[in-house]
Amino acid sequence: MDTCIVGIGLIGGSMALDLKKREFTNKVIGVDINPQHANIARLSKLVDETLPLKEAVEQSDLIIIATPIDVTKKLLPEILTMCQGTDKVITDVGSTKAGILRKVSGHPNRAQFVASHPMAGTEFSGPLAAISRLFDYKTAIICEKEKSSPQALKLIKQMYETLHMKMIYMQPHEHDVSAAYVSHISHISAFALSLAVLEKEKDEKRILDLASGGFASTVRLAKSSAEMWVPVFDQNSEYVLEVLDTYIEKLGQFRQAIRKKDHARLTQLIQESNKIQKIL
Question: What are the angstrom distances between the C-alpha of 130 and each of 37, 212, 259?
Answer without folding.
Answer: 12, 27, 45
